[in-house]
Amino acid sequence: MTYHKYPVVVSPLADEDGGGFGAYVPDLPGCMSDGDTPEEAVHNAYDAIEAWIEAASELGRDIPAPSQKLTFA
Fold it and tell me: HicB-like antitoxin of toxin-antitoxin system domain: from which residue to which, for each copy (predicted)?
């Protein structure tokens, strides 16, 4: 499975939350990460996706398919 097919939502974090950027994966409940830059947050989210899917598989849980394919203009 290609983890890059899961949409990742990135948004700035408040300074009181440590700054940087947060990233979450709407299709995978609780799957999130962060980073100093938007690119780092997305890269870390891909690692989180892999870990989320591995844990769900070990627990025998369903793994949702990606809800949409991302395109860039």
Answer: 6-68
Query: How many angstroms separate the CA atoms of 63 and 53, rounded?
Result: 7
**Residue-range domain boundaries for the chain:** 9-59
59 has which bridge partners? none
Class of residue 23 by CB neighbours under 10 A (exposed 0-12, middle 13-18, buried 19+): buried
What confidence tens digit (pLDDT) does each residue in 4-15 have?
Answer: 789 999 999 999
**Where do we find the tokens 């999130």?**
32
Residue 43, C-beta contacts closer than 8 angstroms, at least 6 positions apart:
35
Q: Which of 14, 54, 68, 12 is nearest to 35 (CA)?
A: 12
